[in-house]
Write a structure and sequence with these properties.
Blueprint lengths: L2 H34 L12 E3 L4 E8 L5 E7 L5 E8 L3 E9 L4 E6 L10 E12 L8 E10 L10
Antiparallel strand pairs: 1-8, 2-3, 3-6, 4-5, 4-7, 7-8
């Protein structure tokens, strides 16, 4: 095989690889730009939810960038409950002794949670400690759940 034919085949191979190299670089730049502007963020497709259970139901939740965390609970048990503690992941909690009547709704505000960024979605693990509202009830029960909430701007009106 002649030397000039070998150089032409080598040149064709280099041009082929260079063309595909530029195409791959172009695809990487586009994917990088989409990722930078948040268009590939899967959390924006996750809906907000408050899943604690059906007996002690979470009706509404509110989280803002100041760390305020409010949760509205409905007692679907046939008896009155005493809510003792509410633990929220991220070091937020509420302690007290609040009687929640059967069928009643009440809003609780837990201690501020640091490091929240507005317009992002955040997962919170929640544990609610309660007992039945009668003089002989000494055993406490725990119910746990998951809250997925969008962190609101603190200037928006929160739950009452």
């Amino acid at each position: 095989m002649s030397e000039s034919l070998r150089k032409k085949r080598g040149q064709a191979a280099v041009e082929f690889l260079t063309t595909y190299g530029w195409a791959i670089i172009g695809v990487l730049v586009v994917v990088g730009a989409l990722s930078y502007f948040g268009l590939l963020d899967t959390k924006r497709f996750v809906s907000e939810r408050c899943e604690i259970g059906t007996q002690l139901q979470c009706n509404e939740m509110y989280v803002n960038d100041n760390g305020d965390f409010k949760i509205e609970l409905r007692n679907n048990y046939p008896v009155n409950l005493i809510i003792e503690k509410i633990y929220v992941s991220g070091s937020g909690n509420w302690s007290g002794s609040f009687s929640l009547g059967s069928g009643n709704v009440s809003t609780f505000q837990v201690a501020p949670i640091a490091g929240l960024v507005k317009n992002t979605k955040k997962n919170f693990d929640v544990i609610i400690q309660f007992k039945r509202d009668n003089p002989v009830a000494i055993r406490s029960y725990n119910v746990s759940g998951l809250i997925v909430a969008k962190v609101q701007d603190h200037l928006l009106v929160p739950l009452p």
